[in-house]
Specification:
By secondary structure, the protein is an alpha+beta fold. The chain contains two helices and eight strands, in the order E-H-E-E-E-E-H-E-E-E. The protein has an eight-stranded mixed sheet with strand order 2-3-4-1-5-8-7-6.
């Protein structure tokens, strides 16, 4: 079962986005640590909110919900089998589209 883990927002102006999300959520977003990617993330809640500088990649055009999965390769196969598309596969994170074209991400709960 996949569970919500992160909602990621790309930002043209990261400082402005950080002020917005910190003000709305009532909590700061901290710089990410090694292995988490670039940007900032809220800590302590069941679902984190992340902000990163907008870039040209497939995860940089839209806000994306990320779902934690125990077996990323198996989850990517399920995406394809259900009529979705894997846009950017990875060992730890992947960007996909559902059967209707909506983007989302999957993240491995462990790398092994």
């Amino acid at each position: 079962m996949a569970s919500p883990r992160l909602i990621e927002f790309p930002a043209d102006d990261p400082d402005r986005a950080l002020r917005f999300w910190a003000g709305l959520l009532g909590t700061g977003l901290e710089p990410r640590v090694a292995g988490e990617g670039a940007g900032w993330e809220s800590r302590g809640g069941p679902v984190a909110v992340g902000v990163h500088e907008r870039g040209p990649g497939p995860g940089d055009r839209f806000s994306l919900p990320y779902f934690a999965v125990d077996d990323l390769p198996a989850a990517l196969e399920r995406v394809r089998a259900l009529g979705g598309e894997v846009i950017h596969p990875g060992e730890r994170w992947a960007i996909c589209r559902d059967s209707e074209g909506s983007p989302f991400g999957l993240g491995a709960t462990s790398v092994g």
